[in-house]
Hints:
Helix content is about 40%, strand content about 15%. By secondary structure, the protein is of the alpha/beta class.
Amino acid sequence: MKKQALVFSFLCFIITNTHAQQGLLGFKSSEAEIKNEKIFDAQLSSKRVGENIKKLSSVPHHVGSEGGKMVASEIAKVFTAAGWDTKIETYQLMFPTPTTRTLEMSGATNYKAKLKETPLKEDATSNQADQLPTYNCWSADGDVTSNLVFVNYGLPEDYETLAKYGIDVKGKIVIAKYGRSWRGIKPKVAQEHGAIGCLIYSDPADDGYGAGDAYPIGAFKNDQTVQRGSIMDMVIYPGDPTTPNIASVEGAARVDHNDAKNLLKIPVLPISYGDATPLLKDMAGPVAPREWGGGLPFTYHIGPSNSQVHLKLVFDWKLRPGLDVIATIKGSEFPDQWVIRGNHHDGWVNGAADPISGMAAELEEAIAIGGLLKQGWRPKRTLVYCAWDAEEPGLMGSTEWVENHAAELQAKAVAYINSDGNGRGFLGAEGSHAFAPLITEISKTVIDPQTGVSVFERSKAERAANATSTAAKKEAFQSTAYPLGAMGSGSDYSSFIQHLGVPSLNIGYGGEDEGGEYHSIYDSYDMYRRFKDPTFAYGVTLAQTTGRVVMRLANADALQFDFTELHKTVKGYISELMNNVDQLREKAKVENELVNNSVYVYAADKTENLKLPALLPEVPYVDFTSVLNALAHLEKAAAGAEAAKKTADTKKLAEINSKIYTAEQQLLTNAGLPRRPWFKHSLYAPGFYTGYGVKTVPGVREAIEQKNWAETTEQMGEVAKAIDRLSVYLEAL
């Protein structure tokens, strides 16, 4: 760690911020905007960030709880005091909590799991009443008994390894490690392979004493810490599972939760590595592959177990009120153009890091904007600041609000800017790639509180320090643009961009705030101030970053959409897909040649040939012509749109602005993605087996990965049509 810190400090030292503040993107004159941003910055308070984190994480505040009502009320008070028009919109949300949790092993090993985290004197809120128990929300009710099988991280490739060992999980309970994918993928794949139950634990090698000192000495998981969390199959659709595509308002028509397409049918339970230890020690069968091993002090076996495991889970399946706090400042010139900012307020327990650290930054923005209002400033466009409830169970608060206001949002939403948890470290940003130049510009003007260089330069130094080749280091050093990422899922932007086509951004800081408190009773103020952001300085840094995005979009003369950047990015995606097809074709060719050229091996006592491996199916020619032609069209149309903005007079520019923010909706497809029509964006979606992780050009990419060549061709056509629609739309600006 010391060596890495020295290297990084040296990189920060040798990289200087050469960016000089010039005219801001989208502004004919930048003087007033720069002045207002300085006033905005001066009102931000790290002390107040810390105070709000402490107050809002003082009690458990999951959806429907008394603590949740208190947190929503306190947030509304802050908005109102700052001069915002504030209301709370309530949705009736399905949110099951457990009434029975039993996990026990009997036979060669007799053990009853504790299923409870240990209160600690070093953590003042860890012994509170009203804490949700350790569980996975949206597990099915179940009472199952069987042998246990260890499935590593529970990914599709792990089951391929099990097959090589001749081990079948059908009718068994599986135990998987947290990590390498979103938690909901593990029971999903287990169910697909016939398992009747699933346990998930955090191995100490990944998140425990193998990673660093355990809490409360250090930040990592102790032997009783458990990661709660949703296992809703959000890649099918997020939100309330009982009201797909419609808002969960009072009296809404609902499907039975047992029939919901995004809920699994087997019982699932997260456990600590303390509770996992006796279960894993009981395993028989083959020694696990070396790469499957973990940090527990014994040899890992795949199983099945010597003993029987009994898992019983029962849930209450109740509707509970979800409270979305919505605060508004009406725009002075374009009231029907909305710049929307959001962060969720519900936590699995106290939630100091997730989500209150991000919520505290949003409140700082609201307070600073309120200060500007008192000095006579007014945004040209309407600001809508949101504090979402019920994000943790499945993005419910934001999704239901979006579904409830869908038509109005598609007409009025200029952009949605999201944050979630926040901590010490490096800028992380992802979103609509037409915003890439805006994020680059802003990242060069926000100063990192630890190093004194811009967050852009610090991010660049981090990429260079972690680069694995000389070429990659050189590329990082020479970069002049922030590498805006693509959006998958896992936070409240999903319904905006992937369902409605509202341009979106997700912004946060982290990387030097590691720890194992995630979704546990130890996600507390005491943990946060010790290990996450001790001076709360990065709460101010996040507020400066997202606040600039909001203010510049709200006041721009020309909205800062640059579709030439989108074109470059999508062109890169298509090149990558073409390369993927070539690699699959070459792999099939090489492996089939090996089979065809194999020397026949004879058994010692037999004369017949042993059976050779089956030939891999040939990879057909995949025609990318339609998409390449569409990209050529987009290149010209995007360049034309940029030229039009530069030459437009005030009236024409206002006309362009009124249309350009809805351009991304042209990238939606009517039918949505195969097998999950809720996701309509042709360029960005969470992967079917990655959960949070993004798949770019998802219809085509996943068809190629599944070697479904008919669907590849079909989806290629859909993407080409979407890109052409965008081009035609831009040409008409």
